[in-house]
Amino acid sequence: MPDATRANTMAQSLRAAGSRPKPAGLRDILFQDERALWSIERGSSPVIATAIHEGHSVRTNLADQYALTSGERLREEDPFTAYTIRDVQNRVTFHRSRFEVDLNRNRDGAIYLSPEQAWGLKVWSGVLAPESIEASLQIHDAYYETLKTTLRGIERQFGRFVLLDVHSYNHRRDGPDAAPTEPASAPDINIGTFSMDRQRWAPVVDALIAHLGSFEINGRPLDVRENVAFQGKGEQTRFVHEHFPNSGCAIAIEFKKIFMDEWTGEPDAEILDQLRNMISSAVPVLERVLEGRA
């Protein structure tokens, strides 16, 4: 199925899932203005959530240089993560594909130039021009300048803050008909805490894990574990803990793609709504902990 047709089919299936507002525009990002970099919503809360791998768009002068199809790129992106954070007052969504620039890798590794950087995938049909690489890296630089300014404002207002760095991960990498990754090494929700002072932020992290673990999906308790499939070693959490060592707690949240078919891209609107509710209802829990009222 062509990628545009697949996107339209996905959007139709979400709208048909019920009269309640569903993931409106979830895959409209496929057709987003290629000039858009990120969106920031600023509210009055010490909790901020980000979806920096949500994006799928790429700038026009790169589009013909990919060796990957749009669908192949989509499989390794984190579609629908922006939907899960839509009720968080402070939130950031990155609209460009990680295959243009990966904000969760350091500057030196933010462009996938070899298959070893991209799950064995050959990303480019030829050699990427130095000026194209630099243009993408300037986006990386600009994002982190903007993030630092945003977080500084939240810090001034509240003293401390929690950043929920929301991602997703594949668990059927061997193919749509192959066995999924063993649950022992693939929790439903992986909490990554590698770069933080775990002792300092224990009340925050423990409260979040307990909150998420109190939910069920289709009658089954969620498997929420820390540093199993991923350890939270991404650039964004590292950046927060470097620049806000005493005031900023950045927690990587990896949803296993139980909310979609990772091979067709078809979402499960009901599960997405449940994940959205989990994140939304976590905010007051974290606010109470930060205020010392938990």
Kindly describe this structure.
- The protein has one domain: 3-Layer(aba) Sandwich (Aminopeptidase).
- 34% of the residues lie in helices and 15% in strands.
- The protein is built from 8 helices and 9 strands.
- The chain has helices at residues 3-15, 60-63, 70-76, 81-84, 130-158, 202-213, 235-243, 269-290; strands at residues 38-41, 47-51, 90-94, 161-169, 189-192, 216-217, 220-221, 224-226, 248-256.
- A 7-stranded mixed sheet has the order 1-3-2-4-9-5-8, sandwiched between helices. It has a two-stranded antiparallel sheet with strand order 6-7.
- Helix 6 (202-213) runs antiparallel to helix 8.
Q: What is the averaged pLDDT score?
A: 90
| Biggest β-sheet description | 7 strands, mixed
Strand-pairing-aware structural class: alpha/beta
CATH topology description: Aminopeptidase
User: What helical percentage do the residues reach?
Assistant: 25-40%
Low-confidence regions: 1-31
CATH class reads: Alpha Beta
Give the C-alpha Rg: 18 Å
CATH architecture: 3-Layer(aba) Sandwich
Write down the domain tally. Answer: 1
